[in-house]
Amino acid sequence: MKATAIAHPLQGLIKYHGLKNARLRIPFHDSISVCIDALHTTTTVEATKLKKDLVIINGKKAVGTDLERVEIVLNKLKNMTDYSGHFKVVSQNSITNGKGLGFSASGFAALATAACAALDFDIDYISLSELVRLGAGSATRSLAGSFAIWYANKNGKSYAEQIVKPETVNLGMVIAPIPSSVRTDEAHSEVLSSPLFKARLKYVAKIIGTMENAIKTGDIATMGKLAEEDSLSLHATTMTGKAHMVLWEPETVLIIKEVQKMRREGILAWYSIDTGPSVFVNTFTEYVEKVADRLRRLSLSSIITSKVGGKPFLTSKHLF
After folding, report:
1. What is the mean pLDDT of residues 179-186?
2. pLDDT in tens, 104-127
3. Helix (H, G, I), strand (E, B), or coil: what is residue 139?
4. For labeling, which of 117, 149, 219, 320 is most exposed (least CB within 10 Å)?
5. Angstrom distance (rounded) from CA 296 to CA 304
């Protein structure tokens, strides 16, 4: 049987950094994100009689670490369903020119959703969330959709749940994709060596409830401000790890300066940067086009505007 799922990538608002258990991808602390409606991953999965799994991502056959991460999820699913065959997987992101846009999250959320449907496996939501987490921790939040909180440990489980429905908060996002060759896993694995890491854990514990409350009340200004401050905290921690990883590119700093300038001019906008150089600018919907125009004037290509995205869904439009 063949099935296709579409899932949205995400922006971390209170971002996770570092894994307490790297094998099971369990984080040190809770985190919060928002899905991006304008971007998506489409993944088609077919249960086949192939001699081994075949995985194609963005037109290229997956090998090495990329294939291993996919097979961790597929093998776990095989064990859960007693399925002894193999899968053909074809996955395509809506854009491929930016790093730090949350596509690993949408990729694994779409993969597990489609694979369960291909096997006609009626899996409960928390088990599905824990399944996608094995591929990418943030996939739990893409699976939840909209604004979501990923629990590091809730009653012995690590999964995500939606905070509010997508249409509840009128958040506008402007996205500037910026390419990079750095792998996100590298940043997560070495961040523990930063002298700032313990301070970050305390900081996140203090603000996670404030961010959740801002989302529930639709307080976009507080959401934007906290996400900006959290971005600085995350990257300060990354830069002070043993590898001294600087994930920003010159365009990243250019956008930061422009957002600060816009605020001085009365355009309410706040930047947010996940583990990579790409930049999200959070704002009120009435400022979205102004913000996008200002970024385009910086000679930045592929500026994207978006509203809040929802949960993964199945479609009959297969990739093969």
Report:
1. 79
2. 999 999 999 999 999 999 999 999
3. helix
4. 320
5. 10
